[in-house]
């Protein structure tokens, strides 16, 4: 009898070879793993704990042993810690198993000591030595976090790249391919089917998952990358339970994982079939949602919870994106943009601003109402069961723009906190170029106006990198250059190098002007327009 762990998709059904879902989960400066994953990985030898690892590593060559070696002070680059620019002809000389260098994205690594630790095996790694292996590396596993794994093996820049800023090169995302179609993969266990989609690092993808009618085998899955949607129409081999058991979208890894429960627990020969198509940025669609909850949150705001009709749609927004809520009223269509608050932020028992992998069949909003506000005053009166329309997620926020920044300042005013809120978790969880300091200045009129005060306090208590300071206009606090100047002390190494701003138009303009006066460049500022 087959056990779950023995069930693997037959390779023949795939056009491309099956590759594992993989991203190295490593802390930035030193190679470290959270202890639970470290234990898990120590036994699997895979950078991700992925059980489908192809190559059995020799005893003593697990990921943990590699981390230990990296932290041992051994000279893994062979240059005694010096950074040495390397010409192509020099690189070509290091093409032996006992003397192996490899260039990836203009940076040369000495991979000699990594050979036996490489989960794909020595022969595979040897395919890239003595040359620029960027293309090959990306073809096999673009998601692997090589700067971190090979940090101690860095020899120097490839000479034609010497003129570039090497440090920036370390953290710069790979150039975006003009047309990147997410790569699909799948694995199964007796009772589960997991679909994987790989976009690219820092792609910050969005996801829309739709059950077709009430079908248990037909699913439409759309991956949003910037303004383009890649559509995967699935006809599964057999019925699955709706909604999925878990959905994980990695803004940083670019990996999407959808775990479906099979209605009948048995091995499948294949996942089924799929057709791929593309929708361009002009594509507009409205999704019908119903109100499940609409109740006061504080003296001038309310909470609105929307769920897709028959729970047939699951929506994960790219970080920093928003939706338009559309509401018919007196023959007109009222329309206003709102950013949902992170999943579980309002209703989890925990004080944490956090989310889990439970599928997002609901979207929750915190909305400030204005007595004379055409949209908010109408939305506030919605009764459970009423339907509204939601647009597809929109936005121009680029998570990758923050990748090279470790000290980030967030300026939010009033309800402008919602897009800022969506950044907290992805930034604090970022593995590459780990955040050092994330400071939120939250501007409100009075104490009573502050949203989610306890959650911010809890986050501050649990993560020393995060601080939240409330600034009240009733106490004379307001956005100004004087207020911001002390935060930009260029003598300090950890001065803020990126600022995200969201508030009413006047606040945004004042913040942007002050930041310009403080010599921040436009690429160091993102203003979410309210
Ligand atoms: C450029 C030449 C390379 C080739 C041809 C290559 C090939 C492979 C192959 C075939 C696998 C198994 C993946 C699969 O089963 O589909 C693999 C896994 C892996 N490789 Fe490489 N590799 C190369 C370079 C590197 C480098 C430079 C690193 C260092 C960071 C690396 C790190 C990894 C990791 C961490 C895995 C395991 C991924 C997982 O946990 O699922 N590889 N490689």
Automatic annotation (TrEMBL):
Pfam families for the chain: Cyt-b5, FAD_binding_6, NAD_binding_1
Record keywords, A-Z: Heme, Iron, Metal-binding, Oxidoreductase
Residue ranges constituting the FAD-binding FR-type domain according to the UniProt record: 284-400
GO molecular function, one term: metal ion binding
Domain of life: Eukaryota
Domain Cytochrome b5 heme-binding: 83-159
Protein name: Cytochrome b5 reductase 4
Source organism per UniProt: Drosophila hydei
């Amino acid at each position: 009898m087959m056990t779950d762990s023995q069930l693997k998709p037959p390779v023949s059904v795939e056009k491309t070879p099956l590759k594992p879902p993989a991203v190295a989960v490593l802390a930035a400066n030193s190679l470290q793993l959270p202890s639970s994953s470290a234990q898990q990985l120590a036994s699997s030898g895979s950078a991700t704990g992925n059980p489908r690892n192809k190559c059995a590593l020799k005893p003593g060559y697990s990921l943990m042993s590699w981390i230990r070696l990296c932290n041992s002070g051994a000279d893994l680059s062979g240059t005694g810690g010096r950074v040495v620019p390397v010409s192509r002809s020099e690189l070509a000389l290091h093409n032996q198993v006992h003397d192996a260098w490899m260039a990836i994205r203009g940076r040369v690594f000495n991979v000699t000591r990594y050979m036996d630790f490489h989960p794909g095996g020595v022969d595979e790694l040897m395919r890239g030595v003595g040359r620029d292996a960027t293309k090959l590396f990306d073809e096999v596993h673009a998601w692997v976090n090589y700067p971190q794994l090979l940090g101690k093996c860095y020899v120097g820049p490839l000479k034609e790249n010497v003129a570039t800023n090497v440090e920036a090169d370390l953290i710069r995302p790979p150039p975006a391919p003009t047309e990147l179609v997410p790569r699909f993969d799948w694995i199964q266990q007796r009772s589960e089917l997991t679909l994987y989609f790989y976009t690219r690092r820092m792609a910050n993808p969005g996801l829309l998952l739709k059950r077709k009618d009430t079908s248990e085998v037909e699913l439409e899955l759309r991956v949003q990358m910037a303004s383009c949607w890649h559509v995967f129409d699935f006809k599964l081999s057999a019925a699955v339970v709706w909604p999925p058991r878990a959905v994980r979208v990695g803004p940083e890894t670019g990996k999407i994982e959808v775990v479906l429960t099979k209605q009948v627990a048995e091995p499948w020969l294949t996942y089924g079939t799929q057709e791929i198509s593309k929708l361009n940025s002009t594509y507009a669609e409205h999704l019908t949602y119903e109100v499940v909850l609409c109740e006061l949150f504080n003296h001038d705001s309310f909470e609105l919870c929307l769920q897709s009709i028959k729970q047939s749609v699951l929506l994960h927004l790219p970080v920093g994106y928003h939706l338009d809520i559309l509401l018919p009223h007196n023959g007109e269509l009222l329309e206003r943009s709102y950013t949902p608050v992170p999943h579980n932020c309002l209703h989890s028992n925990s004080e944490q601003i956090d989310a889990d992998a439970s599928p997002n069949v609901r979207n929750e909003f915190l909305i400030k109402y204005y007595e004379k506000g055409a949209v908010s005053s109408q939305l506030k009166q919605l009764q459970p069961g009423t339907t509204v329309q939601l647009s597809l997620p929109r936005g121009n926020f680029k998570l990758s723009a923050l990748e090279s920044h470790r000290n980030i300042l967030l300026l939010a005013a009033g309800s402008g906190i919602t897009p800022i809120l969506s950044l907290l978790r992805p930034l604090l969880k970022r593995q590459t170029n780990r955040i050092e300091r994330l400071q939120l200045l939250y501007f409100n009129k009075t104490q009573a106006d502050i949203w989610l005060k306890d959650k911010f306090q809890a986050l501050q208590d649990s993560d020393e990198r995060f601080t939240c300071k409330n600034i009240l206009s009733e106490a004379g606090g307001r956005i100004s250059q004087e207020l911001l100047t002390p935060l930009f002390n260029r003598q300090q190494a950890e001065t803020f190098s990126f600022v995200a701003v969201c508030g009413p138009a006047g606040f945004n303009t004042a913040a942007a002007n002050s930041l310009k006066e403080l010599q921040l460049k436009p690429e160091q500022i993102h203003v979410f327009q309210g």
